Structure formats: C-alpha cells, structure tokens
Fold these 2 entries.
Entry 1:
Amino acid sequence: MSNSNLPSNQGNNSINPIKSAGSVNNIRNKALKPIQYCARVTRNNPSAIVILIDQSGSMEEEFREGISRAQAVADIVNDLFDSLIMKCQREGGIRDYFQIMVIGDGKEIGNSEVSIIWEGNLADKDWVSVSELKENILSIEKIETTKMMPWGLVPDIKTKKIWLNPCCDGLTPMYEALELCKEKLEDWIRDYQESFPPMVFNITDGYPTDIDDLTLIENICTEIKSIKSNDGETLLFNCLITSGNEFILPNHTDTNEFEDEYHMTLFNASSTLPPEMKHTASQVFPNKELIIGETKCVIINSTINSLINLLNVGTNTALENAAE
C-alpha cells in the first residue's frame, strides 16, 4: 500500500508531521510523569536518614586546629540531631518527621567491625525517631566562653548535647557498613512506600579496607540507590574528609580534575541531586553554578563547613515538604 497521501518531507525547512507528532507525545509523556522527591513528610510517612561514620584509626588525625576528624564528625552529627529536634518542634510537641540510624565502621564490637552505634538508652535500637532523640540525650556538656558586651567581656556558658561520642580505632570496612545499610533500608522501605525517599550519608576519611576491587563499592551503592519509595530512589551522599583540593558537589564536567580512582568511585557511587536539592545546595554552598547540569551528591576533600552544608541539603529539602 502506498503512502502517497502522506505529506512529503522535502527541503531543509519542511516539517515531518509524523516526527512532530512523536515529539508532542514525548513532551506530553514527560509532563504526565509524576514529579519525584516532593512527597509530604508526615508522622505517618517519615523519611529515613542513615549516617555511616568512619571510625578507623586515621580519624584521629587533625581535621582543624586542635580537633580530630573523629571529634569534628561527632560534633557535627550531634549538632544535626539538635537541629532536627528544633526543626521538628511544633505546637503540642515533636513531629517525628524522620527515623534515624547511625552505623559505625572501624571499631570492633563482638565479632564485627561494623555496628549500629547508638549509646545509652538507645543502645539496643536500630531506628530512632526525633522525639526519642530529645528524650534520650546521652550527656550535656557546658562550654564556658566569654562574649563582648558594651561594658566589656562577660562570662557566657553554652551547652552541647551529645548522643554520639567520637571513636577512632581499627580499619575501614566500608563495604560491610554499606551492606548493613542496604539490609536495614530494604526492611524499612516495605512499611513506608509513600514516604520521601531515604537519605544515606557516608562520611569517611579513607580507602575501604575490606575489598580489593573498588567496583564493589559502586555496585553496593547502586543497590542502595535502587531501594525506592513511590516518590523516588534512595539518595546516597558521599563525603571524603581527607586533605587536598576540595571538590564541592562536583558535576560531570569536574571529573577530569580528580586525583585518583577512588575519587571517581565515590563520584560514580553517589546519587544525582534532584532539582529541589540543587536549589537548596545553590543557597548554602558558595558555588552558584550548582544549578547547571547534573550535579552529584559527593564532596571530595571536604572541610567542616562543607560537611555541615551537605547534611543540611538533604534534611532541609525534606523538611520543606513537611506537613504542619
């Protein structure tokens, strides 16, 4: 059968109606595709936060003057918990918008160098809600400083709430820690399919010591990222806190500047920032070009401020969608 009745496509400026119809359908399908990473965070549908902390011996090295990497990370995570409590405070009490797990790798407990590292009353728990954090502070430290007033220096006492203590002992069994994270998230997601996707923050200062092939790290991270709710896949952030030139949330054009294969592995293993998180990142990070192109959830050779900002990018974006 001849197609002679169809309009011809002759000449450089002519329009093929068949191709045009296909383009219209493609645009329509994209428009009808559900927007992800926008689910309301509620008490019935909280989001999961998993923080993996390197507890190896190298974490004893200095992160900033007078403070070890282990102490700095513990301080940052404790401050994050305190911040989450304040941000989830509503009239009538705490709204449990998050369920949190902290996994440590390096310190040997029993027969394993990987474990969930809650202490005190939370020691036997896997997932901890925000209200449980508020009710189970491990200790409170008083920090005596001074502040300048119009009449001179006066004493100023601040308090620091502690849920986690620093640790630096052993090696870096990162692969095993990621496996444990995957196992726990697979169980969690079955009950929370309507939730904002889980967020995983892998904070490390070194090379994994329980594998010989770096592709295994990429593979296990791909499996973690494939764990998804109806609102999207798990968001995996990697933060390497060793010294060197800092790469803040690099995009695909930055990869030729990486120093070694491990940096590229962490880049490939990380999620791509969804649009709302890119918007948040562009506000808290100094690099205003983050909104251009595909940007990865990874920082290489992070400073303390960048690690704080990385944690805030995920949690603040989720809270923007929180129900009142």
Entry 2:
Amino acid sequence: MTGIKDVAKELKMSTATVSRALRGLPGVSATTRERVQQTARALGYVPSPSAVRLASGQTNTVAVVVPWVTRWFFASVVEGAEEVLRDHDYDLLLYNLAGSADARHRVFEAGRLTKRVDAVLVLSLQPTDVELARLEALGCPVTFVGADVPGWATVRIDDEQAARTATRHLIELGHRRIGYVGGAGVLDFTAPNAREAGYRGSLAEAGLPHDPSLEVDGAFTLAGGIEAGRRLLELEDRPTGIFAASDEMAIGVLRAARQLDLRVPADVSVVGIDDHELAAFFDLTTVSQPVHEQGRLAARQVLDALAATVAEEWWQPAQVILPTRLLQRGSTRPPRL
C-alpha cells in the first residue's frame, strides 16, 4: 500500500511538506499543493481515515451509553441509531454499563468520553447533576433517549400516559382488581417510576383502591415477570387483570399463568408496553411505542447539531415526544362474572 513516504520520495520532498499539502494546511504554495495531489493520485495514495480525523480534531464517532445492551428495548434503539450513523459515515462506540454503577461512574465521571467521540447518546438514564456537568464539559452534542432532561435534546415517549392507556384498557373492559408488574429495573432508568405513576393514577381516576399487595417487582426481565406473575396469580383473591410495565415481563406473566393452569384471557387478562418483536406471537395486548424510531431520531439530532457546529449556525435542542397506541390482541377480555 502506498504511503505518504512514497509520495514524498517520488517528489523528492519532505514528508512534512507532503503532509501539509495533502491536509490543506498553510505554508505550502498552490503549485506545490497541486503537484503533491497529482502525484498522490497517480500513486494511488489514500490517506488513513484515523489520520484525517486526528488532523481535523473529529473522530466521526458517536458514543452510545446503554444501561443493558442485551435487553430488547436498548438493543433496538441502538440498532436504529447505528443505521442512521452508518449512512452518514459515523462509527458507533458502545458503552454497555451492564447494570453496573461502577461502570456508569467510569463512563460519566472518569473522563472516558473525553476526546474520543464527536457526540453522545444516553439511553434511559436520568442523569445526576454531576453527570450533566461532565457531559456539558465535553462541548459536544448530547441527546437523551427515554428521559426528560430540561434544556437538553431528548427523544422519548410519555411513559406515564402509556401506562394509563394500558391500565384504562383493563378498567374499560370491566376489571376492578388489577395487578401491576414493574420494579426499579437497573441503574434507576427512567421508565419504571412513570409507568407505576400511570397505573396508580388510572386506578385513582376510576375510584379503585390502591392495594400494595397487587404491585410486584418483575425487574423488567422475562424471568422476573414469571416470578411476579406467579406471586400475583397464587393470591387467594387474585387479580382478574394484570398490567406489566414491559412486554418481556408480560410474556413472563403469560408463562406463569400457563404453569398454574390458568387460561389467558378467560381467567386473567394481561397487557404490556412496547410491542416487543414477540408480542404478536404471544397474542399479547400491548401499548406500542416506536422503539427503533427513537434511536433513529436521536442519531439525527446529534448529526444535525454537528452539522450546525461546522457551519457555525445556532442549533436549538429539541424535546421530542413520540406517540404510543394500544394494540388489542387476544390476551385481554372482560372478566368473567
């Protein structure tokens, strides 16, 4: 492969002069620059992308900070973002926290992002004041997905409203004893509290009592959903309907019902949130959210901010809230009288 030394040898010039000419730096005459460029093309010299990026101060890399990359929601958002970034010749640098508070500290507070990326996407984490200060100090575009962070670019759904839609669906079918499978999840990510608030708020609006025994932690996992479902369905006065704050937990509840020889929806109705790729397979009623599109929009936001920076134009961080909708399938029906 032809290198810059080969171009310099052919022209009998120093590598420093050739480098400056190819990079468009001052201190090289127009005639010399043209000779260098012609010779480089003739020899088939292609500059190293990493060298070009180093010279320009850009990395063409966007960091994505993910609480747990193996979870379906996070993986789908990352996939959407990567598609857009790839089309614009940007690489994606993944920071998978894997549920670790120590990993979160290393990424945000120990300078791991400094000078390594041009922009940052943060998925479903409510940032602390210290983390926001660190991100601001980077001086690069940042977009949060799934979190409400005033003054910063965000892409999300209204998690509380989505939970209200799911709970109201059960109420409108006639269910009065409604269980909830939720929990804190990992690393205090943002959806759990809002979805719990939506569930409780819908019960209050309908004049239904809040029963703490009907709220069970499912850890936002399939296994957690199975365990939570068993706990609810083994109650002497079990709920006739269950709202799970994610489809993975809802699928776990369906599995628990089967283990206990209960029929869905004849014995218990189940509704989730997400429209997981397996939701239709399990005939699960759910509140659909545009997961893939959240990643795509977040990537476009940081790319627009980067383009505005290059053009020295003002860029206003946008706060985007995407719509959700109820998909009624076969896992819900009115309770038996």
